[in-house]
Design brief:
By secondary structure, this protein is of the alpha/beta class. It has 15 helices and 18 strands.
């Protein structure tokens, strides 16, 4: 593989391995990469999986080889899980066998701050110079493919494949992301955990996801640029966001967090203000924690590019004056607007609602009538058609958590191009409410509805989405719809 020239088809083979070798495989180890060794037995690679360990003749009934060079078949992907001092020798054998992709699972390199680890990293880079072999890692879990079932850990289920591709310096974050994806119906395509990024890096994967027609949203957890040049990453990011959103969770944005990031992946401290400036200039989306990351991914995945708001004007429809005030504050605090409805809409609402204890202007406080489903539905239909409203926000109460209620609301949502946000009541303090929500969640996920368990998360996620749309509009960039 010519490392100086990007080739989409060649690079894409990383996510579609045919022959996999695990160097350092052992039945006795209960840690690290061995945790999912047995799962290969029930995978599509059961007959093309080759363990390498000179201590064994067989591992889990597979023939075990002394060296990767002894495998009588071509190998396109090799995982290395060994002590770091023997990895250079093994990597040389991988280069000799012309293996294109090598994932170094082992840790103990530059992230420790130890001089020996740093020197071995330099040696590994020297070994692959001029070869067809590319290294992912070290200190990583490697590639993920939701379509084929290839992933970091076979212990967590694969969710429904979708348009989100991601990259991460943290294997733990990405394992958690895959798990959260199943629970919250985040739909992934490709992913990669690349640890210390001594060879393949965030720039390589940004470029690949940019050119991948099946990727509609890109997400990244980064602590540093790794071996990538920061200016090159900036330029590629600027080009990518013209076509698809890029969400970046920057780990180590505080001084203490930066110190932790160095111990984690060897990330060199960088000024967070520079990252903020890069994000602002390129139109990417910056988040700071896991919940914000997950919520933002879900928001962009469901809304982009089908549901594009014309502006930042939200229509809030809910029972309860206090709740409507809270929502208005939260949305306004996130630079979203809650304008008055048109006179025509107000008059239509006034025909349905009583004069007392309601508000027909916006936020629309339905009072006790908000618990009458027919009234709630009629009011939503009026607000959806209002020309002053770009975004529909529906905070719900426990009384609304029934499938028949959601089916009627979803029918309205399907008939508009305006973003719909369901804000559900907190289920953390009620086991019964959690069980009730579990039934409703199935219909929401099946119909690809955007919902939040926190009003603050709803406001923040929608604001970030509007920021991206505003960026595109400010530069006259046409949004490419499906």
């Amino acid at each position: 593989m010519d490392k100086s020239q990007y080739n989409f088809e060649e690079f894409n083979t990383l996510f579609y391995p045919k022959h996999i070798s695990m160097i350092g495989a052992s039945e006795n180890s209960k840690f690290g990469s061995m945790l999912y060794l047995s799962a290969f037995k029930n995978s599509k690679w059961a007959d093309t999986f080759y363990p390498v360990n000179p201590k064994y003749d067989k591992i889990l009934d597979w023939k075990c080889y002394d060296s990767v060079l002894d495998i009588p078949y071509p190998v396109d992907t090799a995982y290395i899980s060994l002590k770091i001092d023997v990895i250079p020798k093994v990597l040389k054998e991988c280069v000799q066998k012309d293996i294109p992709w090598v994932i170094i699972f082992a840790s103990g390199f530059s992230e420790t701050g130890d001089e020996e680890g740093k020197q071995i990293e330099k040696e590994l880079k020297k070994i692959i110079e001029g070869s067809n072999t590319r290294v992912i890692g070290p200190n990583c879990l490697g590639p993920y493919n939701a379509e084929t079932g290839m992933k970091f850990s076979f212990t967590s289920p694969i969710g429904t494949p979708g348009p989100v591709s991601f990259m991460s310096q943290s294997g733990g974050h990405l394992t958690q992301l895959v798990d959260i994806g199943v629970k919250r119906d985040l739909r992934f395509r490709y992913g990669v955990s690349f640890g210390n990024q001594i060879d393949l890096n965030c720039l390589d994967f940004l470029k690949h996801f940019h050119h991948d027609p099946g990727t509609k949203v890109i997400a990244a957890y980064l602590e540093s640029f790794g071996s990538a040049d920061g200016h090159d990453f900036f330029n590629e990011l600027k080009e990518t966001t013209k076509k698809k959103p890029v969400i970046i969770w920057k780990g180590g944005y505080t001084s203490d967090g930066s110190r932790a990031a160095f111990s984690h992946t060897g990330a060199i401290a960088s000024d967070f203000k520079l990252w903020e400036a890069m994000i602002k200039q390129t139109g990417a989306t910056l988040v700071k924690d896991n919940e914000e990351f997950w919520n933002t991914i879900k928001t962009f995945e469901i809304l982009f590019p089908k549901y594009i708001p014309k502006g930042r004007r939200a229509g809030i429809i809910t029972p309860g004056g206090g709740n409507s005030v809270n929502m208005t504050d939260l949305f306004a605090d996130n630079n979203l607007e809650v304008p008055h409805l048109s006179k025509e809409s107000q008059e239509k609402l006034a025909e349905i609602l009583p004069k007392e204890n309601v508000n027909v202007k916006n936020p629309i406080d339905l009072g006790a009538y908000g618990f009458v489903v027919d009234v709630f539905i009629k009011c939503i239909k009026i607000v959806v058609k209002d020309p002053n409203i770009d975004i529909i926000v529906i905070p719900l109460w426990p009384h609304h958590l029934f499938n028949y209620v959601f089916k009627r609301m979803i029918k309205i949502q399907k008939g508009t191009s305006k973003p719909f946000l369901f804000c559900l009541p907190s289920i953390a303090d009620s086991f019964e409410l959690a069980k009730k929500f579990n039934l409703a969640r199935k219909i929401l996920n099946k119909n690809r509805q955007l919902y939040f368990l926190s009003l603050r998360d709803a406001a923040n996620s929608m604001a970030l989405f509007c920021d991206y749309i505003d960026y595109l509009k400010s530069r006259n960039i046409q949004i490419q719809t499906d």
